[in-house]
Amino acid sequence: MPSHNDPDHGHGPEKHEVDASAGYERTDANITGIVVFMTSLAIFAAVTGFLCYGIGKVINAHMNKEDGPNSKWTKTVDIRQLGNLPSNPELQNKIATLTQNFPTPRVQIDNGDQDIADLHAREDLLLKNYTWIDQSKGAVRIPIERAMQLVAQQGLPVAPATEVQPPMTGDSRPVITMPLTNGFARTAYEQQEKQEEAVKMQRGGQ
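Now predict its structure.
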């Protein structure tokens, strides 16, 4: 580029002046830089994808080696075969069968109210019915109402007297002024179910 001495600013190169008379940029974009950038970006994405795939294969191979081959407990159930799930007892039974294949312990589908209700229902069966304890010995579990009648008629067996140590200085014997408990209480879930059943019976009777 030719240069000449500037009498106002001493000896130095002439500054390039931009011609803005056209009203737009006259120079072209750097195509070479754009191509190099896009090529580098594509190579980087390909290398990163290849590395991620390789790392995933290594991790899966290590996990399969530790966990062992797949078994019936690790079988994946394809629920898409069921399609839509309308209120159909047959499909519900099929879903129940599929869920039973999952090993225990399973995640509860509610907050445990149904499990407690089932427990109390099993307890009620034992408390209100005759059941065998040992059929070979003739031992029978009787209902609690019948057991209370027998206790009221015959009384409880008297335990042999035991020696009571005198309390130490400053100690006092505990005095129980009321029963500790009057039995287990039904949960709010069970009480609500009983109320709903009572309402249904009233509507049915009307």
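Helices lie at 31-67, 89-100, 113-128, 144-154, 188-205.
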